[in-house]
Amino acid sequence: MNHTNPPGKITTGQPAAPVSLAAHRRNRVYTIITLSGLLGLTILVASTIGSAQIPFRTSFAIILSRLPLIDITPAWPRGFETIILYVRLPRIMMAGLVGAALAVAGAAYQGLLRNPLADPYLIGVAPGAGLGATIGFLVLLTFPWIGFGLIPLFAFIGALGAVAVVYTLARVGKTLPITTLILAGVAIGAFLSAITSYLFTHFGRYLHGIIFWLMGGLSMSNWNEVRLIFPWIIIGIVVIWIHFRPLNVMQLDEDQAQQLGIKVERVKIILIIAATLITAVAVSFTGLIGFVGLIIPHAVRLIWGPDHRYLLPLSALVGSIFLILADAAAHGLIPPREIPVGVVTALCGAPFFLYLLRRKKGLSFF
Amino acid sequence: MIELKDVSIGYNRRPILTGINFQVASEEIVGLIGPNASGKTTLLKGINRLVRLFTGRILVNGIDIAIIDRGALARLLATVPQNPTLPAAFTAFELVLMGRTPHLGLLRYEGSKDIAIAWQAMEATQTAYLAERRIGELSGGERQQLVIARALTQQPKAILLDEPTANLDINHQIETLNLIKRLCREQRLAAIIAQHDLNLAAQYCDQVVLLHRGEIYAKGTPQDVITTQNIKAVYGAEVAIHPHPVNQLPVLYITAGEDKEVLAKGKR
Predict the structure, then answer these.
(1) Do residues B158 and B123 make contact, with C-beta atoms less than 8 angstroms apart?
(2) What part of A 213-272 touches B (C-beta under 8 Å)?
């Protein structure tokens, strides 16, 4: 990257760029491998954090004993194993999946909308999920025999419904102009939030339970939820990632992207569906965790550059690691009390991001 | 080779251009001239299938563009738009390599062949020394040349350029047009250049097409089309036209005058 030519030397004819391009790509691949290792380490470290006093070594040993090819004879109380494997680990997995989903969806929206303020919630997911969950809570209060396990379903339907309405309203003929999409998203969002606020003023005393959901949190995670969201989030991330080249080319304007052979409208639809789906799946269970989807892609772009081929997987890894650590801090800092994880993500993430922004002041975002 | 046969194109319901007929052979440069809003850019967009084709047929290398896939069209036809948006954080080489997009599937990485083609295009446009610079740091002229390099990287049969010299100084204007002329010859490209500067159009184009209110007002060699009468009729401007002292191509001379409205008021 820091390849400079001595003044006066004629460089034409030397294959300098292709060679350094290969080096650049190798570096990115190494970064992805390193961060994957770091993610594994983060999972191990986060499993040692919690209100129950389990020694560091024991938590490590319990997790490692569950990995294939590793044989450790259990020398710990049964209870420790339950806490690590059925309380802490699903929570960590949930945090990792949701962090990856939000970061990748954020990167996809930012790339698609060519707008640095875009995040996974911009075109209706958040207000839709919020209203869905609130209505669901009220319905389930009225008919408690249905079971409160269905709140995520209501949130999911609300999120997808809101985006579907935004999408339909924003369409002009056969095209989907980006500005219209953002404006329709903001307008529908305001409308749905207003309904949610109204429900709160009217039924506020019944709705305490939902406030926690709205602030976002991972404390209720279990393996069933992890199993349910895992395939969706992985498939969504892969679908977005295989569109890295259209996303790169669409950083030019849409006319140029079409002149380079990209079917712009089709790519938009696929990416909106995939990004919305993984966001909706994530927030249905964990509520509205803010900041990850906005800041992680920007941080990755500032450090490793704008090429979506690497931006998307790196965002997934960094988003994962970041949310696992933030959640560990949320329940580990002042046990047994829990700080909402959204508070931690913003409190730790914002200063770090501003530091990056100032350090690379001269560089443009996209 | 580009052929337009009785083409009418426009937006949504209304055709902006009608009855457009002309051909561009390989190695030939056709200049598209005409006043603002005469439809030059719309015509280029029509050949690119970015606006609606109402009637007629557009053939590139004998292939009807209406029936092929966008990727196939991008392998036949490259475009250098006017003032393109370019992402500031990508490097010059990454931008040029984007020209390989129509040749690559979703999951195919650019191989050494693609990299070599992009690199050759940068050498042909003398932009190789910019390869690792970020687009945001480059000047307007450098960006223009990179977009031309990107177009070459598409390995097209025809190339469309929308006012490629609009924001360039005189030296860069000449360099850019010399480059386009050389590339057309070397790579056997058919080129259409939308051009505001009639002197440059006269010097560089083999044929010119003069557009007026959505129709072709005149077409032919620069000597036949760029005449005092035609310029007066289409642009409404009074100019003197004389043959170039070296190559006899038409050259426009303008004379400072007074605002017509002021004159009209004075007469009243």
Answers:
(1) no
(2) 242-243, 245-246, 248-249, 251-253, 255-256, 258-263
Q: What is the DSSP letter of A87?
A: I
Closest CB from A18, A305, A363 relative to B119: A18
pLDDT by 10s per residue, chain B, length 268: 999 999 999 887 889 999 999 999 999 999 999 998 888 999 999 999 999 899 999 999 999 999 999 999 999 999 999 889 999 889 999 999 999 999 998 777 888 889 999 999 999 888 999 998 999 999 988 999 999 999 999 999 999 999 999 888 899 899 999 999 999 999 999 999 999 999 999 999 999 999 999 999 999 999 999 999 999 999 988 889 999 999 999 999 988 877 665 555 554 4
B68 and A CB contact within 8 Å? no
Tell me if A249 and B98 make a contact (CB, 8 A cut-off). Answer: yes
Is A73 exposed, middle or buried (CB count within 10 Å of its CB: 0-12, 13-18, 19+)? exposed
Q: Which domains does chain A have, with CATH numbers?
A: 47-360 (1.10.3470.10)
ipTM of this complex: 0.89
